[in-house]
Amino acid sequence: MVDSAPGRPTADDGHPAARRAARAPTGTTGPGGHMTREPGRRGVLAATAAAGLGLLTACAGKADGDAAPPGAATPGSLHKPAKKRPQLPRGGRQLFPRYRLAGFCGLPGFAALGRLGTGDLDERAREIEKLAHTYVGDREPLPVLELLATVANAEAGPDGTYRSRTDADTVRRFHAAARKHRALLLLNIQPGRASALGEVKALREWLVHPDVGIALDPEWEMGPGEKPGDTYGSTDGRELTEIARYLSGLVREHDLPEKPFIFHQVASSVVRDQRAFRPQPGVAAVKCADGIGSPGLKRETWNHLVRNMPRGMHTGFKLFYEEDPKGSRLMTHQEVLALRPQPEYVMYE
């Protein structure tokens, strides 16, 4: 499969820091049948950060002379109730096969980066609730807020990493909203030239909570000499295992319920040597098929990407409210649920 190279951002909307790039026709097919992301969409994230936006980077006891009445329990004999183990937002400690996840992604203030970043956050959470219920099938709904927590930049920045981090106040606000609406918060990482595992570790204060997981966007993980927006980045099965192993350690250390680890894949080259991935205890790894196109093209990409998946890996599917319908239409939830294997996470941008 040959991947089409993304282009550079161009100006669109009036605000210089939040301009959307001009969009090429959607639904193009590369060799091997995968969907190609149009150049404009890939440039948006780089344009926002490059414009200098400042991203979101005691009980009292008896006196000694008091005697206990006959037959009374002594303090040492009192049975202390077992501490309740942390649960998922809607109960239980295992994500699959009980739940199907569904949600929006985005970054506050940037409509081009997904619906989650627009409008009132509580209103968006209520929309996600309705969306999740359309995808239940034979499962229970679990809404998801996927927040861009590390954003790839077009410029190197002071540390040369080509990435910015969303500020803690924004993450805290989204975590509070997820708690309020009994949803999962996924923190999305676009590493730039930074270490993907390093960016995960930087989010530890959030990941020790039972309702927070990780989403990795490896197409924005750049190698030496590569810049976001110029070409697709990539990860591999070994790095995915390292991240899963770190999350598994947090699950074990804090007795957490199963933690979601999603990675988005737009083309086969974005995740190399996938067979090297090794599942880790307490971590649900989800491969989410990415890419823009018509229903037929998206099905073709799905069939290609889910073929010969590693043992212990779950599936996800991504749709685009604005880009998918250009020249075609948005897939219905019935069509998405008809995919095989059936996606266990459905995300809208």
Would you identify the regions where 5 or more consecutive residues have pLDDT less than 50?
1-33, 45-74
What composes the largest sheet? Answer: 8 strands, parallel, barrel
Number of helical stretches of at least 4 residues: 8
Q: Provide the structure class.
A: alpha/beta
| Estimated helix fraction | 10-25%
Shape: globular
Distance between the termini: 25 Å
Query: For the CA atoms, what is the radius of gyration?
Result: 22 Å
Q: Average pLDDT, to the nearest integer?
A: 83
| % residues in beta strands | 15-25%
Element order, helices and strands? HEHEEHEHHEEHEEEHEHE
Q: For the largest beta sheet, what order do the strands appear in spatially?
A: 1-2-4-5-7-9-10-11
- How many beta strands in the DSSP annotation? 11
